[in-house]
Design brief:
The structure holds two protein chains of two kinds. By secondary structure, chain A is an alpha+beta fold. Helix content of chain A is 24%, strand content 24%. Chain A contains nine helices and 18 strands. Chain A has a six-stranded mixed sheet with strand order 9-18-17-16-12-15. A four-stranded antiparallel sheet of chain A has the order 1-8-6-3. Chain A has a four-stranded antiparallel sheet with strand order 5-4-2-7, with no helix packed on it. In chain A, helix 7 crosses helix 8. By secondary structure, chain B is of the alpha/beta class. In chain B, 31% of the residues lie in helices and 26% in strands. The chains are: A alpha+beta, B alpha/beta. At the A-B interface, helix 3 of A face loops of B.
Chain lengths: 433, 468
């Protein structure tokens, strides 16, 4: 007589555990090879498991509704032949991956497999387990009974995040001792058999403070403004080359240039010709205030959430001062040190996620402004230039406009001019014609 | 401007759930405030378990002076009477002693105590109306331990004649005629005590059975005692209201046949259950989920709101002191960062009727409903030497043990008989430790004690009892 331990096989790509939904046998049943044994459900499907051996069911592990990890023992079947799990596990038996082992089982039912508890691996491991365990035999538990364990063992299992349902017990009636639990935890060959505790509970986060402010502003902007988005790709190879060149030769007192000051430069050069875009729309009063100054809002991620500090009179700043000012207001916002007037009065907003910029975005306008400009990620792309495929640094520019006061034609023309200017960066620094 | 306090843990309710949570939190070094409007100790200590057991003890002592057992032992007493006012003073002294003990334990654990009624404004803030004015308390964690209150029947409002268990424990005169509405354990414990004190007691119960918490076999010896003592128990009878006409008070009830019962009553004790105390302290402001009348919690006693915990009677059956205390202890440890789950195998329950009942784990009927094949061993106290020596062998008492047939694991232990409530410890321990019949059989039980019957019941389930 031998024992065969049926372990939950890998039931599908990436499945770590499955729910036991139906037992087709009970303890004491005689079953034939290929007879249905148990139904398990993964997040993909319900699968009927059949027994690869003929014999008598002597133990079932896991009650209906339990989550069984892949590789955990589900049933113990007493077979006529040698079985896979001799009454006393041979000391040298080395447990292999339970999942891999399962495939072998189906082909060769008599092949030695992992014994029900970790005791069999003791000697091969260098005697890491108590000596008494080597001789002890796993005692089958009854399937529908709770695991048998004293309060101290249950407490320890909670600390370890282990479901006792899957811990083999060596005591009478399958009682799990503290040693059984420790051995289960330490058994290196069966990491997958560790019971995973399901996580319950919902954290209720009250939307307060800055988060409420952000929520209200976003809701207000989306409710009031009929947004339209316009996305164009820009070849930034030249401007990037200029940026790298300028950074390489900058003086110690000069800030490191990012892409943003160049974009702001393009905006301040072009906005005088598109006054409807550099504006604040008081929609309650029905008045659009077109501003001569360009106060650029810089969308900034802070620990508390999104804040938009303002670079004032960007039209009066050279590229270095602009870079310095962007860095300063963003840092002030992140450190909650921004003055009140540094957080309001912007006439247009730039929102850049930097390396996280993605391919395209549909930014939400910072009401009461009427436009928001969002550079996306810069990436090397093959493009066609003069009939040749060449690698260029490409960047998309995703912008949204308030369609009530900005016509699509004007917005498109504006973005195309930005594109032209950025693709010929010398023009950024020429006086407007 | 009211005083305002902040703390790590705010516990509302100084009953056995709340004060245990507070002491444990204090032990773990958590900054803890406990709010209680009444006296520390809660229902259990102030107007429940402890005073009722004191009263029951006094009643049994008084009754034993002149009963048949005493006479059989050759003890003859002269005329005896009871000074009920003194009995109540004595009972109060017992309560006072425990109350001051709890206060001292809390102080030693450095728990701040705020006397007053707490009303919550939101999940983490409450205002307490103290004698010195309102105190506002804000906490990181809140443990709700508000307990339960007796259920009042709309047609029998509590007052001079109609009383709850609280008032019954403070009566300075034994009512001549006491009608008990509701034959649960509270009603029968107090009804039996007043019977022993000399009251003429009648019980009205709407269902078909007394002591619904226990099965028929366990309740039968109690029914027998009530009958012997002349306590009429009207099962299937519904109380309707009071009739105050003709200068005499009657409780009106309707029996199964539709006949009207007129039961003369000096006092009517209404014990139809307890309900969680969920009103009048701002629970509705906290927006926690409910399940039926109870606050919904998971197996960590966490409510639907983060860091708001609820324990004891507020969160469901069984409404028992020891469950509340265990939950309080657990929640304090969880707040201190430990991993805990409330997963007892059994919560034993006792009933101090005549005779006493104790039950832990599954009854035979529950086991059957769960489809578990069981071995049952019953051993009668008639065959136990200690019971016989205490005149406790002839009240129909027994110990019953239930184990799974397949692995002999114990799943239920019950007993009925004189003094059996103390067996609850062995019952609960056996179940928590996962004992099998052989474990009980292999443990030498002291002779001569009532616990020998537990040993014999296990042997009997295994088929080889000695003394029967």
């Amino acid at each position: 007589m031998g024992q065969f331990v049926f372990k939950l096989p890998d039931v599908g790509e990436g499945t770590a555990e499955a729910e036991i939904v139906a037992w087709h046998v009970k303890v004491g049943d005689l079953i034939e090879e290929d007879a249905p044994l148990v139904d398990v459900m993964t997040d993909k499907a319900t699968v009927e498991m059949t027994t690869p051996v003929t014999g008598k069911v002597v133990a079932l592990h896991g009650a209906l509704g339990d989550m069984a990890p892949v590789g955990s023992p589900l049933a113990v079947i007493e077979t006529e032949g040698e079985g896979d799990s001799p009454a006393t596990p041979p000391p040298a038996l080395r447990a292999t991956s339970p999942i891999k082992g399962e495939e072998d089982v189906k082909a060769k039912p008599n092949k030695s497999l992992l014994p029900l508890h970790g005791g069999g691996v003791g000697e091969a491991d260098g005697g890491g387990l108590p000596a008494a365990r080597k001789a002890s035999e796993p005692v089958p538990r009854i399937s529908d009974a709770k695991p048998l364990a004293s309060p101290v063992v249950r407490r320890r299992a909670q600390d370890l995040g282990i479901q006792l349902q899957f811990v083999p017990g060596t005591g009478p009636a399958g009682r799990i001792s503290l040693e059984d639990l420790e051995a289960y935890v330490e058994t290196p060959a069966t990491p997958i058999a560790k019971g995973k505790a399901a996580r319950d509970g919902v954290d209720d986060i009250r939307v307060i403070g800055l988060r409420r402010k952000i929520a209200e502003k976003m809701q207000d902007a989306k409710r009031r403004i009929p947004h339209f988005a316009y996305i164009e790709e820009i070849d930034v190879t030249e401007v990037e080359s200029l940026r790298v060149h300028l950074n390489a030769g900058r003086r110690a007192d000069q800030p490191k240039l990012t892409f943003l000051p160049f974009l702001v430069r393009a905006l301040v050069n072009l906005l005088p010709r598109y006054p409807q875009i550099n504006a604040r729309f008081d929609d309650d009063a029905g008045v659009v205030h077109r501003h001569a100054a360009v106060h650029v809002g810089i969308a900034t991620q802070t620990p508390g959430g999104l804040i938009v500090p303002v670079v004032r009179h960007a039209e009066a700043l050279d590229i270095w001062d602009c870079a310095r000012e962007i860095a300063r207001v963003a840092a002030a916002a992140r450190e909650s040190k921004a003055a009140a007037d540094e957080l309001k009065g912007s006439t247009i907003t730039v929102t850049s996620l930097g390396p996280l910029g993605g391919v395209a975005t549909t930014p939400v306008i910072n009401h009461p402004e009427v436009a928001i400009i969002g550079p996306n990620k810069i990436i090397d792309r093959p493009v066609v230039r003069d009939g040749q495929i060449v690698v260029r640094k490409m960047m998309n520019l995703s912008s949204s406009f308030d369609h009530r006061v900005v016509d699509g034609y004007d917005a498109a023309a504006f973005i195309q001019e930005i594109k032209r200017m950025l693709e010929h960066p010398a023009t950024l620094f020429m006086d407007p014609a | 401007m009211s005083e305002s306090l902040t703390c790590k843990v705010l516990i509302v309710g100084g009953g056995p759930g709340g004060y245990v949570a507070a002491i444990r939190a204090g032990q773990l070094g958590l900054d803890t405030i406990l709010v209680e409007a009444d006296r520390l100790g809660g229902t259990c200590l102030i107007r429940g378990c402890i005073p009722s057991k004191a009263l029951i003890h006094a009643a049994s002592t008084y009754a034993s002076i002149a009963d048949e057992h005493t006479a059989r032992m050759g003890i003859m007493a002269g005329e005896s009477w009871i000074d009920m006012a003194q009995t109540v003073r004595w009972k109060d002294s017992v309560v006072d002693k425990l109350n001051s003990g709890v206060t001292a334990l809390l102080k030693r654990a450095r728990v701040r105590i705020v006397d007053g009624w707490a009303t919550f404004q939101d999940g983490k803030t409450c205002t307490v109306e103290t004698a010195a004015g309102p105190v506002s308390i804000t906490a990181e964690h809140v443990i709700l331990a508000n307990g339960s209150v007796p259920v009042e029947l709309p047609f029998l409002p509590f007052g001079e004649t109609v009383i709850s268990s609280t008032e019954a424990l403070c009566l300075t005169e034994v009512p001549k005629r006491l009608v008990v509405v509701g034959a649960g354990y509270i009603g029968l414990e107090l009804g039996s005590a007043f019977r022993k004190l000399g009251a003429h007691v009648t019980v009205v119960e709407a269902t078909e059975t007394i002591l619904p918490l226990f099965d028929h076999e366990l309740a039968a010896p109690v029914a027998r005692w009530l009958k012997e003592q002349g306590v009429a128990v009207h099962l299937g009878a519904r109380a309707k209201g009071l009739d105050l006409e003709h200068g005499e008070t009657h409780l009106i009830a309707e029996d199964q046949a539709g006949d009207i019962l007129r039961l003369p009553a000096d006092k009517v004790l209404v014990t139809v259950g307890r309900r969680p105390n969920t009103q009048g302290w701002g629970l509705e402001q906290m927006a926690v989920d409910m399940v039926g009348p109870f606050v919904k919690v998971d197996d960590r006693c966490a409510t639907s709101m983060k860091n708001v915990w609820a324990i004891g009677d507020l969160v469901g059956e069984p409404m028992l002191e020891h469950k509340a205390a265990a939950q309080g202890d657990m929640v304090a440890e969880i707040i201190a960062g430990q991993n805990r789950r409330f997963d007892p195998v059994a919560i034993a329950a006792v009933c101090f009727t005549e005779p006493e009942i104790v039950s832990a784990g599954h009854s035979p009927r529950e086991a059957q409903a769960l489809g578990i094949d069981v071995l049952t061993g019953v051993f009668p106290y008639a065959a136990n030497g200690r019971a016989r020596s205490m005149e406790a062998a002839d009240d129909g008492g027994f110990v019953r043990i239930l184990a799974r047939k397949d692995d002999h694991r114990l799943i239920g232990l019950q007993a009925v008989g004189g003094h059996v409530s103390e067996l609850s410890a062995e019952f609960a321990l056996a179940l928590e430790m996962g004992a099998r019949l052989e474990d009980i059989a292999g443990t030498i039980h002291v002779h001569p004690t009532l616990s020998e019957a537990v040993h014999e019941a296990a042997l009997r389930a295994l088929g080889h009892a000695i003394h029967i």
